[in-house]
Design brief:
With 192 residues, the chain is of the alpha/beta class. The chain has one domain: Rossmann fold. Helices cover 29% and strands 20% of the residues. It contains 5 helices and 7 strands. The strands form 2 sheets. It has a 5-stranded mixed β-sheet, with helices on both faces. Strands 1-2 form a two-stranded parallel ribbon. Helix 2 links the parallel strand 3 and strand 4. Helix 1 packs antiparallel against helix 4 and helix 2 packs parallel to helix 3. The longest helix is centred in the last third of the chain and has 19 residues. The radius of gyration is 16 Å and the shape is globular. The C terminus is likely disordered.
Amino acid sequence: MTPREIVEAARAALGRIGIDPFHHHASDVGADRVIDVRAGGDGFADSWGDITDPAWCNPPFSRSSDALRRCSREALAGRSVILLTSFRPEGSAWWSELWDQAPTCRALLIPAGRLAFRAPASAATTKQGPLIGCAFVVWAPCPVSLSQIVRRFRAELLSRAQLRTAWVRLWEAQDQTSAPSAPLPHGGRPES
């Protein structure tokens, strides 16, 4: 399960968590609405409801590509989304949904180190993180809201979870001709 501090950082950044479309029954996300697979729900196919409900997404990492596609579709419709997923930037979904896609505003936050997930049956944090790296992808309806959400999320992650992140803004919505490979600040390194 996602550590509570990370979920609370997302809640603070989004203002609230309106939908948890990949809900796990042992999760304590506390979203206004959930899509629960045990109740026959499918966050990859079911409606996420009101587009003004911000989404927190932590899908099974085995379906990260599907989650990127679905979150990207929701963002194109105008929803703010924070996705915690496996970091596999060489994958085709990363290219089609993040690097090449327009016109959503999105950012990639890369944690400094591995996340320590909780065991579902316990509130204690495990000592081991996943075997692959994780990343947060943030989508927002406009550059201003993206900047506000990302800055708040990064500050909350540092404050609540002592988690440092580097971030890269992937696209500017008002410039539909630019490639997402704009030069990075600080001599080619992501902001930290």
